[in-house]
Write a structure and sequence with these properties.
The chain has 265 residues and is of the alpha+beta class. It folds into 2 domains: 31-158, Phosphorylase Kinase, domain 1 (2-Layer Sandwich); 163-263, Transferase(Phosphotransferase), domain 1 (Orthogonal Bundle). The chain contains 8 helices and 11 strands. The strands form 4 sheets. The protein has a 5-stranded antiparallel β-sheet with strand order 1-2-3-5-4, sandwiched between helices. Strands 6-7 form a two-stranded antiparallel sheet. It is globular. 34% of the residues are buried.
Length: 265
């Protein structure tokens, strides 16, 4: 390669890098400031990539926060409202507490020791579980795409305001019974058609939409129904929900609820 070719190549690379930096600067203006304050550089680069490739158009205010993740309101490339779930990469005990869900999952045979890569796997796992549940007809947020520790899915709510969680609502007696029956139907469909059990089932992982339509959320901890811990997770989840409905004023038989879920409602 001649000196001229080398100089030209060096100039082209320099221009490419400058152009890329300029595009990232433009996209940075489309991010909520709080996002940049919380997340590390690699996470931000993942979000920038989604913006630059047109999959995302905007990432706006935070919708909900937790110890392990934050969910932001966003707009995808087609202009639809989306939920942008970003897993934090600074929770020291995250990997240890989640191994029991991943170890017996045949879809993920290699479990990374690296903490960041484990977070990526966990995000990928939630995307896979949501896809499996959605395809089985279970009412869950439709998964759209996932990259590293960022998961983008259908936004359950309107105008940036999410639907309330089950524990945040108060129901009339007749509504409560309708809600309970719907919960049983959803869990039965997840179990029989989706082949899964929600590993962290509670009133905090069910959303109430328009017309009292329910949605199951936070499926990263869902496991196959033949998983060694599946029945333990199912029994525990039913116990938690039984207590919730009983306290709300509806008599619930946990054993009967389990039977209905297993046989399909």
């Amino acid at each position: 390669m001649s000196q001229w070719d080398k100089a030209e190549r060096k100039l082209s690379l320099k221009e490419y890098r400058k152009d890329r930096e300029q595009r990232y600067l433009v996209k940075r203006s489309e991010l909520d400031e709080s996002l940049e304050e919380v997340f590390d550089g690699q996470t931000l680069m993942t979000v920038y990539d989604m913006l630059n490739t047109g999959r995302l158009r905007k990432v706006m205010g935070v919708v909900s926060t937790g110890k392990e993740s934050r969910i932001y309101h966003g707009v995808d490339g087609s202009g639809l409202e989306v939920a942008v779930k970003i897993y934090l990469v600074s929770t020291a005990e995250f990997r240890r507490n989640r191994l029991q869900y991943v170890v017996n999952d045949p879809r993920f045979k290699k479990i990374p020791r690296n903490f960041r890569r484990f977070i990526y796997l966990w995000s990928e796992r939630e995307y896979a579980n949501l896809t499996q549940a959605f395809n089985a007809g279970v009412p869950v947020p439709k998964p759209l795409f996932q990259q590293n520790n960022v998961l983008v899915m259908e936004f359950l709510g309107e105008n940036g305001v999410r639907y309330p969680l089950l524990h945040e609502e108060k129901f009339e007696p007749d509504e409560l019974e309708t809600i309970f029956n719907q919960v049983v139907e959803i869990l039965a469909k997840l179990y029989n058609d989706g082949g899964m059990v929600h590993g962290d089932l509670s009133q905090y992982n069910i959303m109430v939409g328009k017309g009292l339509k329910l949605y199951l959320i936070d499926l990263a901890q869902a496991v196959a129904k033949d998983h060694p811990m599946a029945e333990t997770f199912l029994t525990h989840g039913v116990s938690v929900l039984s207590s919730f409905f009983t306290k709300a004023g509806l008599r619930v038989d946990g054993e009967e609820m389990l039977k209905k879920i297993r046989r399909g409602g």
